[in-house]
Amino acid sequence: MRCEVKIWILGSFYFATLLLLVFFTLGESNFLRVKQAGRKGNTKCSVDLPQKSTKKCKNLRERELTRQRGIYQLAISPYLQIPLVNMTINQLAEHHKKDEFAKEHFVNYYRMLLKTRELGKDWIAQHPEEITDFQEYENIFKEFRSSMENMATGNPDFYRFVSNSEPFRDYLKDWRDDGIFADLRLSGINPMVLRRVTDDSSGVGLKWSELKKTLNPQYNWKAAIQAAMGNNVPLKKAIKKDYVYVLRYEVFDDMSSFPDKADNCASHHMWPAKSPVALFAVNKNRRLRPAAIQIDYKPDSHVVSPGDGDSWMFAKMVVQATDYVISQMIEHLLKTHLLAEPSVSSYTGSCPSSTRYMRSLSTIAEGYYRRDLDVKKDNELQAFMNELSVNRTGPDGGNGQVNTRFIFYPHEDTRLPSQPEHQEGVINLVTQLIWFMSVKHAAVDFPMGDYGAFTPLTPTRFTHETTIAAQMQVAMNVGTYHYDTLFDYYKQLSHPYASQLVRLSYHYLNFVVNRKLKARNKRRFKKGYLTYPYLEPHWLPNGIQT
């Protein structure tokens, strides 16, 4: 590949930022795990609401919270203008090396970061020549994976590739295939963007009347969609029957490009940022197929079809590059890490370690918060929500700057309350915290170890530059580390009722749900689809770990 051909979408700042944010949450990645209640030689305090604790236990709780608040404080980052833990990376690292709760996770993950950095440096030193063939991207991919698989630091079970353990299509060989391109919309690194195209009577998806405003009127969209469906169903009927889908990246509309200050090659040319529009349709076999790609959202933009040879492959790469940025900057970084950081920091400074998980499951919450009045009187819960919510009161209020409820809150008012008043609200809040720190994060994180490390499938730039190795490092760093399994800690809980509830949840997920999902993935594999094992419960962690 010639030196001047280049797709530069992510930028060095993205890699640096993502690696930086990795450190901010790894000490609290086991947010939902529980420490042993009490200390040797001290008063044994039961797990209960603060208003129901004895005077001695209240004093112990407040003493621990004072210590925790002295460690975990939020401050506005001068770089991102959002609240982050007010420590440097070195300060945070030193703290976690001494913290019995975080030490094992931190040390093993830090060793992996050092290992991937070493692999990147070695590869660059051994390959000074420019990449000239797609095969070379496959070679570096295999070199990195082989080295990671042989890594002998800590427990080898920590470092695993999902695609090595589950039925998985050979995407290194078939990455050009249109079926893979379509399947990646829901089975790849970003299952969050694909939308159904609907008519004006629908309240979901993207209305055709709105989408049409961005589409090139000179292109025959009806014929392209019918070709993808493999029939002559009228466009209006196809939309009505939910056959038409679209990728639309509004955040990229009119996005400015910037010079790559890290690139010293004068012959390189920047590919300007685009906001592609990709249409898909469901064929008679109920399989999603690509119909056409418009390179930018403006109506005069060029449109490419599946039969257009190399231009079609290039158009798919534009979509993949854009999808990669949205996945990792918006869905991964912004909507999980940057939301989790103030949540975890505020919670750590508001609730004692011995009660941190015990009030976290809905059934347990119902046991502790028997009435709405119990919620109002829980000063630790109130302090947590007050610091997290932008709708705050008092000196520490609003430090987390979270403005809206997360996902499932049932009421019409979308503001995150600073003073929760209802049992139902606590249950919904905890459900959301568990969801986005475990399941949602897994969906946008672990596929990176498979798809995000292979440049032709997930392009950032096409040159021999240090960012090729950097892409591998980022993908391996975020997509291969598996520290634990959701709800696997039930034996560590001292409360017998809580332990039983968590055990039942763990066994239901791993012996009922997991079997169903595995059987479904085996059927998909036999039919030639991409499988999606990333949300099989045995791959789900207890929190954000990378």
UniProtKB/TrEMBL annotation:
The keyword Transmembrane helix applies. Signal peptide: none annotated. PROSITE patterns: LIPOXYGENASE_3 (PS51393). Keywords: Dioxygenase, Membrane, Metal-binding, Oxidoreductase, Transmembrane, Transmembrane helix. The keyword Transmembrane applies. Residues 47-344, 368-546 form the Lipoxygenase domain. One of its GO terms (molecular function) is metal ion binding. InterPro entries: LipOase, LipOase_C, LipOase_C_sf. GO terms for biological process: lipid oxidation. The chain crosses the membrane at residues 7-26. This is Lipoxygenase domain-containing protein. It comes from Desmophyllum pertusum.
